[in-house]
Design a protein that fits this description.
Elements (H helix, E strand, L loop, with lengths): L15 H10 L3 H14 L3 E3 L12 H9 L1 H4 L17 H4 L21 H9 L6 H12 L11 H11 L6 H11 L12 H11 L4 H12 L1 H5 L3 H8 L3 H12 L5 H6 L12 E6 L2 E6 L7 E3 L1 H12 L5 H41 L1 H6 L10 H8 L3 H10 L1 E4 L2 E4 L7 E3 L5 E3 H13 L9 H10 L6 H10 L5 H4 L3
Parallel strand pairs: 2-5
Antiparallel strand pairs: 1-4, 2-3, 5-6, 7-8
Helix pairs in contact: 1-17, 3-16, 6-7, 7-9, 10-11, 11-14, 16-17, 17-19, 19-20, 22-23
Length: about 475
């Protein structure tokens, strides 16, 4: 049975300007310039540069848009404004292009010029003599090399793939035979199936000296003990002195664990960071400036506004004129909204960064990371009376040029903990002290996490061993056993 009833419902809708503003705020300077260029290309009613005041029109931006804001002057007879505004007040030009989530943003992939790593390896294969079958196998093996330089697949899987995809029926022994030739390609160690094989290939390439021969024996016969740094067991196993072991380990440490990286790094596109803000110290006070590239000069096209005036003044209004004026009004609305969104973006960026700068004033004046105060997104959001998500958009993608280098803004945020004196200190301060302690430790007897926790407690930072382990992992510092040096 069908029933009719009334229901009150609270819902929250974002206006087109809010949607546009959120997207613009999260863009760093370079991406913002691309977005600006795109909007200028797509919207002929939006113009860049200084507005020409010598065209006989003295009215400013607000006066320019006044005529098309007046519905009575445009919505004449059968022209319906709702035809170009949807129910949620978002015009068509927004819904088909920009009204989607950040996860769906189109990502342009830059391509480096030059020869790829795979092509570099295939070109080397041309110096070897192969049968047709061997050539197919060699090219397939080279195509299986990842960007680190390894072939991380079993020979049996490669054999099956060759049969199914290349129509090449062979044996694992034949594949292994061709793989030995691939191991002769440069850079040394390429095509290895694991780290042990990679280091072994590189050592075989070296001129055989006592230190190299010992290093080769360690890698091939005692790799597990070497990785666990059981130096005493290695000295007993090979009946060698500590100096001999130290020299052999020195040879191993000079090898490249990722041979593919040495080639790919040379062809990587260098990403230039453009600071969105700059902080300078002037007469002992901090001075914040917003990168001028974030404040472009934009204005609404007077030519388009004049078209509306012409329509208003014309006595006879044809259907084509009405269609044209609807298009013009859409574009003028879009231009006005975009200009306003950029103005709000500039204001939001400056206000947010200014609050962060004053919150971390001691750090920006000294450059000492130990002066960083505990700060979370909510602290700044409360300070500027904006949403936490807005602060997050500014912090996660923007850089600031400081007297101590260019920094990602989010690094100034950290949790807090209470020290022995009852003061709140930043976890970044503790990490910095932990890093210093580990740098100064005796590498022959590295400090365990328990020992590190004890030292930090003596310095006035009572934290648990598991917390020390967490901070150490965040700093990408290995456990004590792996920090040991002979």
């Amino acid at each position: 049975m069908l029933k009719q009833y009334l229901q009150f419902k609270l819902s929250q809708k974002l206006s087109p300007q809010q949607i546009q503003l959120m997207k613009l705020i999260q863009l760093p300077t370079q991406a913002f310039e691309q977005r600006l260029k795109q909007e200028l290309e797509e919207n002929p009613a939006l113009e860049g540069g200084k507005e020409d005041k010598n065209d006989g029109l003295d009215d400013d931006f607000d006066n320019t848009t006044e005529d098309y804001d007046d519905n009575e002057s445009i919505n004449t007879e059968d022209i319906n404004i709702d035809e170009y505004l949807s129910d949620d007040e978002i015009p068509d030009y927004k819904t088909h292009a920009n009204n989607y989530s950040a996860d769906d943003d189109e990502k342009s992939i830059p391509y480096a010029s030059g020869t790829s790593f795979t092509q570099h390896l295939i070109s080397q294969l041309n110096t070897y003599r192969f049968s047709d079958e061997e050539r197919d196998i060699a090219e397939f093996l080279v195509g299986s090399v990842d960007e680190s330089g390894y072939i991380r697949r079993e020979l049996s899987d490669i054999m099956d793939d060759l049969a199914f995809t290349q129509n090449v029926y062979t044996t694992e022994d034949k594949i292994d035979e061709v793989l030995q030739i691939v191991h002769q390609l440069d850079p040394a160690g390429v095509g290895a199936r694991n780290l042990q094989e990679c280091l072994s290939i590189q050592l075989h390439r070296k001129k055989q000296r006592p230190d190299v021969e010992l290093a080769l024996q360690i890698i091939e016969k005692a790799f597990d003990q070497f990785t666990k740094k059981h130096y005493k067991k290695l000295m007993q196993k090979f009946n060698i002195t500590e100096i001999q072991l130290k020299n052999a380990i020195g040879e191993i440490e000079h090898l490249n664990p990722k041979p593919g990286g040495s080639y790919s790094n040379n062809n990587r596109i260098v990403e230039h960071v453009v600071p969105d803000f700059a902080i300078k110290i002037v007469d002992g006070e901090l001075e914040l400036t917003l990168n001028g590239r974030n404040a472009p000069e934009l204005h609404v096209s007077r030519e388009y506004s004049n078209m509306l005036k012409g329509y208003k003044e014309s006595k006879e209004k044809t259907k084509s004129q009405k269609d044209a004026v609807m298009f013009i009004k859409q574009k003028l609305d879009a231009a006005k909204w975009f200009i306003e969104a950029i103005r709000q973006r500039q204001q939001t960026l400056f206000v947010t960064m200014s609050a962060i700068m004053h919150y971390q004033k001691e750090y920006f004046l000294t450059g000492d990371e130990r002066k960083l105060r505990p700060m979370i997104l909510k602290d700044i959001a409360d300070e500027i009376e904006m949403d936490v998500s807005t602060v997050s958009r500014v912090a996660n993608s923007k850089y600031v040029d400081t007297p101590y280098g260019t920094k990602l803004i989010k690094v100034f945020f950290s949790e807090s903990m209470t020290n022995a004196k009852g003061e709140e200190v930043s976890t970044r301060e503790i990490k910095k002290i932990l890093e210093t302690i580990i740098e100064e430790e005796n590498k022959k007897k590295p400090l365990t996490d328990d020992a590190l926790a004890k030292i930090l407690k003596e310095k006035g930072y009572p934290i648990a061993r598991r917390t020390v382990a967490k901070y150490r992992e965040q700093l990408e510092i290995p456990v004590a056993r792996l920090r040991k040096k002979i």
